């Protein structure tokens, strides 16, 4: 079987998750009658330090529902230029929310607070209304980079002092909390709303949660329905989500250790590797004398899978199905490519 380092989304549910799915108590969630979904939403709200939460089909749906709920047509949203919302959601903020995007450069995913302050438009008949700022933590394209609570606080203060909302794309926020050994609420307190994925390193098969104020989530529920996200006996999917939040967070540390091991091995082979803070390793392929796609096809022949991130950059992502031996095997495969 291939050593699949393409993404932490390839993780399959645990045996306990599968049992919880089969045994879940369910009802019609569009009527608010699915006890397992209700339990997941209450638990997620508590863990994330918000009044309420909403179970959504995917991280993308969570982010899009958030933008739709925060904004009206023609508003402006400030996004980090390498963010998932801007790059990997099919242009949905334009297509669905009808918002104008303003992108800012960053230092490893962290936007400078003074740049954010300058980007917020004054209230003037000529201007779009700056309604929302989105942060992403950990930051995928920056290589799983962690934004510290203090860095988030600085941006949050700038935004909220000017009446601008803050949404956190926390697809991998638990990785940030584990990496810094901080509480998840140390991060979420600096966002009005937050989306976290249950289906990445946390291993649930499906879904994300969006958390925020009671009033916000009430409105978000309406947008989720419009997007076709009103699910019926969704408790079968919420049950593994509960286990994701209660049992799968601490083990993310193991993924981080394996990513560090992989990065160290690559550096020993003289590859240029971006700083590794969590479970993502970005490596330049020039050392192998080839571009990312050629490198990936050589690697795939040897049973190791990863994804291209740039013409000459490959991303490896560690997760629950990867062992220390897999990392050693992958490094041997890479070394063999160098010597071929
Ligand atoms: C994966 C991811 C998402 C979207 O999640 P899906 O469930 O794949 O839609 C959003 N933001 C970031 C940073 C992600 O890595």
What does this structure look like?
Residues 4-286 form the Aromatic amino acid beta-eliminating lyase/threonine aldolase domain. Belongs to the threonine aldolase family. GO terms for molecular function: lyase activity. Its EC number is 4.1.2.48. The chain has 14 helices and 12 strands. With 340 residues, the protein is an alpha/beta fold. It folds into 2 domains: 13-247, Type I PLP-dependent aspartate aminotransferase-like (Major domain) (Aspartate Aminotransferase, domain 2, 3-Layer(aba) Sandwich); 251-339, Aspartate Aminotransferase, domain 1 (Alpha-Beta Complex), CATH 3.90.1150. α1 packs antiparallel against α11 and α12 runs parallel beside α14 (324-339). 51% of the residues are buried. Pyridoxal-5'-phosphate binds next to α3.
Please specify the SSE layout and strand pairing:
Blueprint: E1 3-4, H1 15-23, H2 35-48, E2 52-56, H3 59-70, E3 76-80, H4 84-87, H5 92-95, E4 100-104, H6 113-119, E5 130-136, H7 149-161, E6 165-169, H8 173-180, H9 184-188, E7 193-197, E8 208-212, H10 214-226, H11 235-247, H12 252-268, E9 280-284, H13 292-301, E10 304-305, E11 307-310, E12 313-317, H14 324-339
Parallel strand pairs: 1-10, 3-4, 3-5, 5-6, 6-7
Antiparallel strand pairs: 2-8, 7-8, 9-12, 11-12
């Amino acid at each position: 079987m291939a050593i699949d380092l393409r993404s932490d989304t390839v993780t399959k549910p645990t045996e306990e998750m599968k049992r919880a799915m089969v045994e879940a108590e369910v009802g019609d969630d569009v009527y608010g009658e699915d006890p397992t979904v209700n339990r997941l939403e209450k638990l997620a709200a508590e863990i994330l330090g918000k009044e309420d939460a909403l179970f959504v089909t995917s991280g993308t749906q969570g982010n899009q529902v958030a933008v739709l709920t925060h904004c009206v047509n023609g508003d402006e949203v400030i996004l980090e230029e390498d963010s998932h919302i801007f790059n990997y959601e099919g242009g949905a903020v334009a297509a669905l929310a009808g918002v104008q995007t303003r992108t800012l450069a960053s230092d490893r995913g962290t936007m400078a607070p003074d740049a954010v302050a300058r980007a917020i438009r004054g209230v003037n008949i000529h201007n779009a209304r700056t309604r929302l700022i989105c942060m992403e933590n950990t930051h995928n394209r920056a290589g799983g980079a962690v934004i510290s609570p203090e860095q988030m606080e600085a941006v949050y203060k700038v935004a909220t002092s000017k009446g601008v909302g803050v949404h956190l794309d926390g697809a991998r926020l638990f990785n940030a909390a584990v990496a810094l050994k901080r509480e998840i609420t140390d991060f979420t307190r600096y966002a009005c709303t937050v989306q976290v994925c249950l289906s990445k390193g946390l291993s649930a098969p499906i879904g994300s949660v969006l958390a925020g104020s009671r009033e916000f989530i009430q409105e978000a529920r309406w947008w989720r329905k419009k997007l076709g996200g009103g699910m019926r006996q969704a408790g079968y999917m919420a049950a593994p989500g509960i286990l994701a939040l209660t049992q799968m967070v601490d083990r993310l540390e193991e993924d981080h250790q394996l990513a560090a091991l992989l990065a160290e091995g690559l550096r020993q082979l003289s590859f240029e590797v971006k700083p590794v803070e969590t479970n993502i390793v970005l490596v330049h392929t020039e050392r192998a004398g080839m571009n990312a796609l050629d490198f990936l096809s050589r690697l795939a022949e040897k049973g190791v899978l990863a994804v291209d991130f740039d013409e000459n950059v490959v991303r490896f992502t560690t997760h629950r199905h990867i062992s220390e031996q897999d990392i050693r095997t992958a490094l041997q495969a890479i070394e063999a490519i160098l010597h071929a």
